Amino acid sequence: MDFEKILKEKLRNEEIEQLKRQAKTNIQLEELENKIAENVEYWFNQSINCGGCALKIDTCIFPGKGDFERRVSGILESFPFVRLLGDTSLEEDEYLVLYRSLEEGGHHFVRIEDDGTVMEKEGCQPPQKFQGWEN
Question: Fewer Cβ atoms within 10 A, N terminus or C terminus of the chain?
Fold first, then answer.
């Protein structure tokens, strides 16, 4: 009888130790997943600009030189999924992107989400709510 009791106690202690090891492993795994998520966000923010964010693609967009029409033509040629809205309305799978080009060469894209929120991305910063045009 004592042998059975000791064996059960030992097995219970081993199960407890195994659960403790698993808990440590789960904590380490969670920490690793958090680090990976931070790195992904960091590199995402490093590798795209306002244009990539607005068009939901993982690249920087530099529309080139020239007047506004030439820059817009360059965007339309480079990205066939982009179209001018004109007098038409948005399709169900589309969203609105605004583009501003400055004479001195600057540009900025913003995206309007389905809920009406206007989003932008400045440099290496994460996307945020649009704060308005600077100039």
Answer: N
Using the structure block, give the residue that is written with the tokens 């960091």. Answer: 42
| Of the candidates 128, 83, 134, 126, the residue with the CA atom closest to the CA atom of residue 108 | 134
Which among 43, 59, 62 is positioned nearest to 108, based on CA atoms? 62
pTM of the model: 0.66
Q: Is 105 helix (H, G, I), strand (E, B) or coil?
A: coil
Name the burial class of residue 53, with classes exposed (0-12), middle (13-18) and buried (19+) by CB atoms within 10 angstroms of its CB: buried
Question: Could you read off the pLDDT of 6-47 as tens digits, one per residue?
Answer: 666 767 777 777 777 777 787 887 888 888 888 888 887 788
Q: Give the DSSP letter of residue 119.
A: E
In contact, 120 and 131? CB cutoff 8 Å: yes
